[in-house]
Amino acid sequence: MKVYGGRRRDLGYGRRRMGAGRTSWAGNEAPGELIRRRRKARGLTLAQLGELAGFSAAQVSRYERGVSPLRDVTVLRCFADALEIAPQALGLTPVRNGHATSPADYPQVPTTSRVLAGPGPEDGEDPVRRRQLLANLAVTAAAAAGAPLLAAGEPVSEADLGPVLIGRLRDAMLGLYPGGDGTVPPGVDLARAHTDFRACRYGSLASRLPRLLQAGHSQTSDEAATLLAQTYLLVVRVLIKLDEQQLGWMAADRARQYAEATGDALLVAEAARHLAVLARKARWYEQAMNIALTAAEHPGLRAGDRERAAGRGLLIQSAAYTAARAGDTAGMRELTAEAAAIASGLDGATLLRDHGGFSTTTVRLHLISAELSAGDPAAALTAARMVAPKTLPSTERRARYFTDIAAAFARWGRREDCIHALLAAEYHAPEETHLRPAVKSLVTGLLVSGRTNVELRGLAARIGVPASPVIHPLVS
What Å distances lie between residue 19 and 2, 10, 13, 16, 287, CA to CA? Predict the structure, then answer.
């Protein structure tokens, strides 16, 4: 039982992993336990059952132990068919002539596939009304952030870059951005936008990303869905860094829709990963875990080529971080080991179109954040010693490395080391260091928790944090 925000919540991790202890719909035995018992009775290994049911051995193990909840009717029927379990034993309606006798009798439990697919007309929701609600959400989010409506060519100072970038993305998503002059082909602009993101050039992204959204929405060709899917995926990554979660949800929903329209398994996987990240940030840990692990088992990622294996590894890596945030250190390390095994099998880094890459090094980089989130700064710093910054694939990854180390030092009370790590992050990626709310919060904490020095005050000035921040008293 975990405590978050003063409220007790059974997250299902730790000794009682997600789904463990839940009973099947038709009896007193948990579905995972029933599947495990039947598998052993038939003398099948995890891998053999996975082959029959269409899942990896690791995912079968998670289903059996309750790490991944068994709620999806399709998943349950796969196991029922593979193990010849009576459908009723798993709470399923019997099938006759290839069809369920009474689909309405299925348990009405939201599944990951429905989370990823989103509501449609069958859900009783008007799609036009839904889009309008999302648009209103974007306006509300931008207003809360104080993002002004700015002309496309208006010069931007670094101090205003965050709000301007958010404001322009909002305007483009609402169809209010004027767009570009059409001199740069969208494909070229998108490639340059990915380069800008990896180099942490947010001033350039403030022009490119809104222009790409406007160009994509103005097209009617078959390539428009791919352009918009890739652009929205990059937009979500930017909004997550800026901690703009409400607008991020809207962008992630659009990324998912356009990715599914393309039928590209890698785009769909990356869209799912972004949804899992946003769910994790909202502290919906079980949902975040379910989204990532279910997407990792999609047949489209199990075709055997390097890029698809890397996409699967990224999803498992994301699930590991979610486990850490939920306080399940053992689960985090188990999932990290699974991601590391995938990376090791790739025998080197695999660059992905919509991500900086996946390799043993990037798995170790995520382990730093995961160990810190699990509450062990010493373990985070030990993991950091396994990573050479120069081996990281981009400036953006190096900035993450140094900010994660800074956070670990801060948690451990090593102020000077924390400041030096922040200065290293600033050296590699000044715009990212100056923009990120997480860095501003870290610097503010240093200013109010002990003696300051010239280096800390200078850094505070450059990122826009007052050297003597006002701390408002709590109001009961």
Answer: 16, 11, 9, 8, 12
Mean pLDDT for 407-421 is: 95
CA contacts within 13 A on the Cβ side of 18: 24
- Looking at per-residue confidence, does 218 or 119 come out higher? 218
* Size of the chain, expressed as the number of residues it contains: 476
Cα 446 from Cα 421, distance rounded (Å): 13
CA dihedral 346, 349, 351, 354 (to 10 degrees): 90
Query: pLDDT class for 459, splitting at 50, 70, 90?
Result: very high
Q: Which residue, 277, 276, 201, 262, is CA-closest to 230?
A: 262
Decide if 66 contacts 32 (C-beta within 8 A). yes
Tell me which residue of 411, 406, 450 sits closest to 424, measured CA to CA: 406
Cβ neighbours for 295, distance < 8 A, ≥ 6 positions apart: 112, 116, 268, 269, 272, 273, 276, 301, 315
pLDDT at 147 over 50: no
**What beta strand segments (E) does 48-96 contain?**
95-96
Q: Of all helices (H) and strands (E), which one includes residue 224? A: helix 223-241
Query: Which residues, listed in sequence order, are joined to residue 350 by a DSSP beta bridge?
Result: 358
Cα–Cα separations (whole angstroms), residue 44 to 41, 48, 60: 8, 6, 12
Strands 95-96 and 99-100: antiparallel
* Contact present, 225 and 233 (Cβ < 8 Å): no
| Percent of the chain residues past pLDDT 70, beyond the cut | 77
Please give the structure tokens belonging to residue 216: 């994509």
Which amino acid is residue 253, in one-letter code?
D
Residue 7 phi/psi, 5-degree rounding, is: -115, 140
Q: In CATH, what class is 11-97?
A: mainly alpha
CA angle 112, 118, 120 (to 5 degrees): 130
Residue 96, classed as helix, strand or coil, is strand
* Residue 53 banded pLDDT, cuts 50, 70, 90: confident
What's the helix, strand, coil split of the chain in %, to 5? 65, 5, 30
Domains of the chain, residue spans: 11-97, 127-263, 394-476
